[in-house]
Task: structure prediction
Amino acid sequence: MATVCAFVLTRDRKELLVECLRGLLTQTHPVDLVIVYDNASSDGTAELLMAEGLLDDPRIAYHRSEQNTGGAGGYAEGVRLSVEAGRGWLWLMDDDAEPRPDALERLLGAPPARDPGTVALCTEVVHPDGTVDPLHRCRMGRFIMPLPGEAHRPGTYAAVGCASFVGLLVRTDVAREVGLPRAEFFIGYDDAEWSLRLRRHGDIRLVPESELVHKIPVGGGSATARSRFWNRVLGQHYASSSWPGFWKDLYRVRNFIWIKQRYGGVTPLAFAGLTATYLVKSLMYDPQPLRRLPWLARYALKGLRGDFSGLSPEEWRRRALR
Result:
């Protein structure tokens, strides 16, 4: 029987974490080990896990960081710990995700799991109402775009260009060889960059009949009348971001342009086009867009230069709330 180490990254979502862990511990294909990495939570996560008896379960290993290292830093540590655990597969998970009871069994029972050319398998990520969340399994081109609708039909097993860390099952020997996700990204596209490295070794395949419920929508933005209008016109899924949360957009711009530069090279014309796209998107979707444009241009240049310095999230929020 295939052995599996699951990894869950958590920060300040203790009730959702408990639901996630219950889902992992009751899989029809047993999970051998569940590593929980608490990324400096301040909501009493450890105390709730103790009260629920989860820390007494020998299958759960709890680790806590005293500093928030972002999603990228948390998953870098998670992959390191999971590889060291020495199981055959590692299964990555957010704390706001809950796998269906047979999700792991369906992943490992799918034909791609027996294909040595497959290095990773993906669950289908669905909303609580059962509809597919298309933003977790994507194609990689000039931009990252959702897979076409037919890729989500059961039995299709489409190749995935880049996959989020929500429900990604990876062969441990391949994870060891490709190295850790890039902690310096902090947040945004660390999963896409790691997917590109995985794909140098083989295919990432979607298994639509294996489902995982994602309880908080990806992106973290908010829908406005303007964003809903442009999404209807363009057929997109964008949201606007608040000014205090705008640092996340800046990190994503920087990280995506770094990826394009690293994996394909960016000509001056292509860089100008990418940057212009981000500027136009902000003008279309965001409140106070003129305030944002200089910051977007600055972080686009950081991505081109591989410069991961800048304002921390805490520094940005303090500045934004002045």
User: Anything to note?
Assistant: Residues 225-320 form one domain. The longest helix spans residues 246-263.
